[in-house]
Amino acid sequence: MDRRNALKNIIGITTCAAGATLVPSFANAVEGEAWSLTPADLGTLAYAKLDPMAVAKIAYNQDVRNKGCMYQVFHALITALAASDSPDAAKFAAIPTALSVYGSGGIFSQGTICGNNNAAGMFFKLINIKGESAAGYLANVSAYYEQTALPINTAEFLAGVKDDRDEALTPEVFAEKVGEPTIAKSLLCHASLTRWADHNDMSIKQKGMRCQLLSASMAYKIAEILNTAYDAGDMTVFPGKTGATTSCSTCHNTASTTVPSVMSGMECDTCHGND
Known about the structure:
Helices cover 43% and strands 4% of the residues. By secondary structure, the chain is mainly alpha-helical.
């Protein structure tokens, strides 16, 4: 199956029978039978370098951005890899990205984890980089979301993601409809939105362009982070855990015997303030 045709065939996810040995689905596939994802395939799909702007443009496409933040990010990354040089391109094309629509509004409008971060976790669980786990780079994605003023509002970025069916998308339009980018200081949807709304004196009803461009920004940065990791580049150019969170995690980790102790990679201030 060539990549163009593969993109047209969205295959349902199957699971292994209870108690069965987990074997990657391709190992048991009959010749000519469509591939479908199983738990044993997690972490086995090969990442290939992507054009971050092309990924962001998919995320901001009119037909994508109205389906929620999690779908924007997950669909954009999977779609780009389905058309990439990855040896697993056809497998990426078989992943039903529509499953990610549940994550909009912090999981079905509950205001919990932002769909951008939910999408990143779902995506990172699938891939590897040259055979090595990509899981460690999720911390850079989370830190970028927590610590960076978003969405990106440069003229170059806005022009790059603009759908051809859109009217002008310029810094001036951004200023009118979004206001100023804000720092979330949290991975949670309601905290991120509240800080943006308070700072810009806007209501949540006005969040449309802000959230859609935020997802395009995250899709862009995820591709950039993974490209750098693929090239064994300098990861210190991306945000990571703050000093305070690093200090806390020396005790709050899976090996800790402290009672109570909960492992967390998110910023401590989200729940505990500055105390």
